[in-house]
Amino acid sequence: MSPTNAVLERVTRVPGVRGSLLISGTDGLVVAERLMDGIDGRAIAALAANLIQRLVRATAGAGMRIPTFVHLRGNTGSVLAAPGRNDLVLVALAGVDANLGLARVEMLDAVGRLA
Amino acid sequence: MRALEPWVEAPLQTFLAESSARLILLMTTSGQVVAQHGFSRSFEVMTAAALGSAIVASTEELARIMGAPRFGAVVHGGSQQSCMLAAFGTPRGRWIGLVVFGTETSIGIVQLFFDQMVEELVMAAPREEPARAPLAENFEHELNASLKELFGR
Question: Domain A3-114: which CATH class?
């Protein structure tokens, strides 16, 4: 298993996490993904990257540092994102029953290991 | 935004709103313009249409020589502006979309909403093409009428 897939496997193993993907932050394209059937990784990559880009611009505009973790909470679940080095962003989709604390720890640890 | 046929307008408008693309040109594979947004001069549109259709023809031929299926899209990435060219099938034949976008959006977003626009165009396209007189008789008149429609003058 490649290091990238190992990272995605670790995040996906967290209870309640429905999938994870590594995306290019600038292009909004999928680099690697591990998702449940029926989840459109391409759409998530495009929209999550767009969200991160806007947040980065907003925080930079406010004179703040780039966010290290983003949690977008919805009625039926959450989108978690951790921007990393080399323009990569680790994204996870979690259900309402997910262990978000563990997911956050795993994602921050994983994104720190990515080259 | 200008379109030769009204059913093209709604999908195109949605695409422009969602993708934040700067320019778009929809044309047939022979380079005939169907709709455009963002171009101000007819000369630019005609040049872009001719070049775009030629690029798609070249890449499709390249794919054929390589024994590969058609390429989905051709993307030219730039530091300030990028360009995507993609051909797709409609009930009215094969069309090409040329999209120019800047750093305010991304290729992922543009591709995502472009594919959505293609689905909407395919659903909205009338199945029956209106009957037209042979090209040779009406060519100049039709060309002028199309340019007038696309540029409003």
Answer: alpha beta
Residue-wise pLDDT for B36-86, tens only, equals 999 888 778 888 999 999 999 999 898 889 988 888 889 998 989 999 999
Cα–Cα separations (whole angstroms), residue B51 to B28, B57, B58, B96, B144: 12, 10, 10, 11, 20
* Residues A66, A81: Cα–Cα separation, whole Å: 13
Are B23 and B100 in contact by the 8 Å Cβ rule? The answer is yes
HEC assignment per residue over B99-118: EEEECCCCHHHHHHHHHHHH
Report CB contact under 8 Å: B109, A26. no
Report pTM: 0.82
Q: Identify the closest residue of chain B to A26 by CA–CA distance.
A: B106
Report DSSP letters for B64-101, one per residue: HHHTPPPPS-EEE--SSEEEEEEEEEETTEEEEEEEEE
Interface of B with A in 38-77 (CB under 8 A): none
Option in A42, A43, A46 nearest B106 (CB):
A46
